[in-house]
């Protein structure tokens, strides 16, 4: 690996294993993935090797053999790359309406993603980010990606979540600004926070790294935001007894969160029978968007006042994993307000413990 040279570039990269953004090292082979240490690179190699490709030029003099992952057979890598390019599917199209969908249509439901044999979308993270997520977010403020990781990986994540739930670590979801004891009247979910290093959370960690990968490719293109960090992953469960979450905004007070990213884990979900829709009310629009919490579905939307939303009562156990990404400038201002005591109580929270659930 080689040390990252540009401070600006470093602010826009993440450790593939833990999400850390400081003092990063670049994979000496593909030069497109980053790690905070050689140890994390070694730990992540089993999954990174599936996407790591040699660049089409000789090693630079300062790159010594053995610094990066094992080089493997470059001929096989070239053949695999050519095969993947030949088999690439048409790019997803952004929704074809200027306004969000009404009650009978989901935003993104007409956004096709062609799955590979094991179920996940066939698009590379870079193409998915730059040619689907970026234009869809900038036009609608909401983007849905189906078949994100494939059934096998999705089931592995679901197993991690169910095992985690059985440990009793989940607690009642809290409000960012806690003013009364009526939280359960507002939200009925159970949550826990995951950093990604916890035993038994390896698949959740993999999901987080893939989310980070997409955001890295989107960065600098999502509105005017410069994303330089994220929260831990919030794993949420609505127990299925009619619980939901009333209409709210994730970031109403400028706490730094700019993009909400949610991954759903609910197999064979039928909204008519199970409820649990995420209903988004885009600012300035007469219509609303209904998002079903379908298995292996990834959802992005702006975290601020542009997207008030609610979780309608769920009558079957409903799981989701949420990560919020920070805008550098707004996050810095929020920290300053927190440190000086000049901000509102809604800002005075440890931001990686923000407790909104969708």
Automatic annotation (TrEMBL):
Keywords: Dioxygenase, Iron, Metal-binding, Nucleus, Oxidoreductase, Vitamin C, Zinc, Zinc-finger. Its EC number is 1.14.11.29. Its cofactor is L-ascorbate. GO terms for cellular component: cytoplasm; nucleus. Residues 56-124 are annotated as: Disordered. Residues 226-327 form the Fe2OG dioxygenase domain. Residues 56-66, 73-84 have a biased composition (Basic and acidic residues). One of its GO terms (molecular function) is L-ascorbic acid binding. Gene3D superfamilies: 6.10.140.2220, q2cbj1_9rhob like domain. Pfam families: 2OG-FeII_Oxy_3 (PF13640), zf-MYND (PF01753). It is found in: Nucleus. Its main location: nucleus. GO terms for biological process: cellular response to hypoxia. It catalyses: L-prolyl-[hypoxia-inducible factor alpha subunit] + 2-oxoglutarate + O2 = trans-4-hydroxy-L-prolyl-[hypoxia-inducible factor alpha subunit] + succinate + CO2. PANTHER family: EGL NINE HOMOLOG 1 (PTHR12907:SF4), EGL NINE HOMOLOG-RELATED (PTHR12907). This is hypoxia-inducible factor-proline dioxygenase. It comes from Crenichthys baileyi (White River springfish). The lineage of its organism: Eukaryota, Metazoa, Chordata, Craniata, Vertebrata.
């Amino acid at each position: 690996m080689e040390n990252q040279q540009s401070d600006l570039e470093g602010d826009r990269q993440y450790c593939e294993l833990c999400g850390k953004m400081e003092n990063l090292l670049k994979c000496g082979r593909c030069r497109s993935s980053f790690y905070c240490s050689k140890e994390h690179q070694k730990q992540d190699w089993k999954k990174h090797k599936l996407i790591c490709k040699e660049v089409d030029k000789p090693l630079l003099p300062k790159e010594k053999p053995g610094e990066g992952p094992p080089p493997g057979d470059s001929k096989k890598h070239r053949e695999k790359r050519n095969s993947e390019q030949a088999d690439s599917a048409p790019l997803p199209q952004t929704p074809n309406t200027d306004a969000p969908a009404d009650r009978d249509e989901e935003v993104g439901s007409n956004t096709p993603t062609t799955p590979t044999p094991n179920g996940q979308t066939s698009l590379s993270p870079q193409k998915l980010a730059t040619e689907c997520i970026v234009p869809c977010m900038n036009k609608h403020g909401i983007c849905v990606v189906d078949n994100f990781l494939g059934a096998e990986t999705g089931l592995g994540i679901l197993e991690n979540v169910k095992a985690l739930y059985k440990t009793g670590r989940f607690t009642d979801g809290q409000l960012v600004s806690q003013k009364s004891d009526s939280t359960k009247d507002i939200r009925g979910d159970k949550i826990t926070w995951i950093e990604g290093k916890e035993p038994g959370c390896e698949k959740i960690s993999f999901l987080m790294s893939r989310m980070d990968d997409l955001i890295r490719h989107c960065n600098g293109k999502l509105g005017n935001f410069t994303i330089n960090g994220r929260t831990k992953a919030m794993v949420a469960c609505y127990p299925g007894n009619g619980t939901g979450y009333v209409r709210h905004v994730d970031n109403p007070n400028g706490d730094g969160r700019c993009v909400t990213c949610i991954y759903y884990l609910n197999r064979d979900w039928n909204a008519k029978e199970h409820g649990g829709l995420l209903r988004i009310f885009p600012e300035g629009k007469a219509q609303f968007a209904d998002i079903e919490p379908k298995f292996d579905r990834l959802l992005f939307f702006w975290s601020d006042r542009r997207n008030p939303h609610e979780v309608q009562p769920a009558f079957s156990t409903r799981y989701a994993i949420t990560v919020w990404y920070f805008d550098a400038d707004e996050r810095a201002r929020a920290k300053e307000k927190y440190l000086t005591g000049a901000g509102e109580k809604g800002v005075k929270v440890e931001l990686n413990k923000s407790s909104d659930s969708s």
